[in-house]
Amino acid sequence: MPVLVTHPFVSLMTVKPRSLGALLALALLSACANEASVAPTTVAEAPPATETTVEAPTTTVQPEVTTTTSTTTTVPVTTTTVLDIACIKTTTCQYANLVGVDFSRLKLDFVDFSVANMVGASFVGTNLTNSIFIRTDLSAVNFEGATLKNVDFTAAVLDQASFKGANLEGAVLCDVDLETVLDLTKEQLDKVKKFKTKGKVYCP
Question: Are strands 172-176 and 194-197 parallel, antiparallel or unpaired?
Answer without folding.
Answer: parallel
